[in-house]
Fold this sequence. Notes:
Blueprint: H1 2-19, H2 22-25, H3 29-54
Amino acid sequence: MIIIAWIVLILNALVVLITFPGVFTDKTTSDRVANFISCIGGILSLILSIYIIRL
Length: 55
């Protein structure tokens, strides 16, 4: 389970780093909101992965 948590942690960190600039640079408001929600979901998943690793 810890190995899966590390994989999820790395992949979600990459997703957050890729989608975060889109919050400020996308053309439409709906695209910005979608990127923001995906960043929040990625950050929550990062927190969950760190919690599982620390168990």
